[in-house]
Amino acid sequence: MARRKNVLLIVVDQWRADFIPHLGAGFLRTPNLDRLCREGVTFRNHVTNTVPCGPARASLLTGLYLMNHRAVQNTVPLDARHANLGKALRLIGYDPALIGYTTTTPDPRTTGPRDPRFTTLGDLMDGFRSVGAFEPSMDGYFGWLAHKGYALPEPRENIWLPEGMDAEPGVTALPCRIPRELSDSAYFTERALTYLKGRGKRPWFLHLGFYRPHPPFIAPAPYNAMYSSDEMSGPIRRDTWQEEAAQHPLLDHYLRHVAQGSFFRGAEGAANQLDEAAIRQMRATYCGLITEIDDCLGQVFAHLQETGQWEETMVIFTSDHGEQLGDHWLLGKIGYHDESFRIPLVIKDAGHNPRAGEVEAAFTESVDVMPTILAALGGDIPRACDGQDLMPLVHSGAPSDWRRFAFTEYDFRDVFYSRPETSLGLAMDDCALCAIQDGTRKYVHFSGLPPLFFDLERDPHMFENLADRPEHAAEVRDWAQRALSHRMRHAERTLTHFRATPSGLEERDTPSRPALPIAAQ
Predict the structure, then answer these.
(1) What CATH number should be reported for the domain whose range is 14-520?
(2) pTM (2 decimals)?
(3) Is 385 a residue of the active site?
(4) By the number of CB atoms within 10 A of the CB, which of 8, 373, 379, 421 ranks highest?
């Protein structure tokens, strides 16, 4: 009997797709990620199906679109009935270990209102076994620091202030107060190596999560000085944030309400006040955090190589979502711009990789990760899953009937730290959008606000909304129909392949249809 594969699923936080050297970001120094790209397949057009963290991770780990899992925002519960990767792995004999977090709020029907998990942004998804917790409220990390003998400040999050008691909070080239050996990335790496060394040579699955390059955007030495702001590109945005805001009411809301304090510990003022020099420095720090993660991955990869496990381990590298980084005058992961939704995906299979080093241009989505892992390990893909197995693309390229566009969603109802719903005067269930795009066009449909339509060939950065132009009415209609057809095709279908007959229950084997071109719909 062939030896079972190991699986290392690396999930970073807030790393956007154009910060991958293998895809053209030559200014970055990531030798370990570069190695993974050389030995596996890198996906050029990969998106998270939704943002922010909680909904994105729900789609990643359940294989379901937001329209189906309905954990629509951070703090909104995930229905306990849904299958997820952890539960599915247990069915085929794996003990799914998790380092990091999933930002999952539990189903309130499975517990009571006094459950402390309802006082946090999110906790761990059922089905996984934590071997290096970060949640709730980063207690795992701060406890580790205290155990290491580090004197935590009050409040403890002040470790992410700039070094020096008189340093100004905000965008900075200074290092943070925590040294590199005690950073959160170092913590996750130590937890990973502890788990792997304890596991020995028994087959394993490990979800290895990293908090970075998520804000606060401040790096430990020497990573704070590893990149110069002069190396960084400036933001893609209109001359003023007010010009940008005129495009759509939702964009206007975020441009008025996103604060710097969510990205720089102790900072004041609106994100729209950051000038180009500040944006470039922020990006240099962001790159430093990326290289720190790469160094940490090098330690994990070296252990797998030294113990003879590298060749028999399937490695998947991805992120939960992207980051605006000042583009369109925005920070964070919000709205409908590509910077929030386009993310990395690299897959190295265990054993033979006939397409090693290649870049795959087909459209792929975060919901594809769960079915890909299950297919690689011989498990059954739940019928409800909206994603597709990527192993054919890893081994031989996209089949002719592969999807022809990417589908994304975003829900902007009020949560305790953000109130677009109130600001826009919408009902809670009208605070939703879905977007559909290929390489030429992007259509964004809102349940309670005007639509958007962009010509990506002429306007790749989506500055000019064509949705209300008479000359584009037919195109807008076609793309709206395409979005509707896609949603209808992926409506919840757990039991829809069963039917009663005079001779009893019948189960139909009907693989999900690929998306058809507009003309065929």
Answers:
(1) 3.40.720.10
(2) 0.96
(3) no
(4) 373
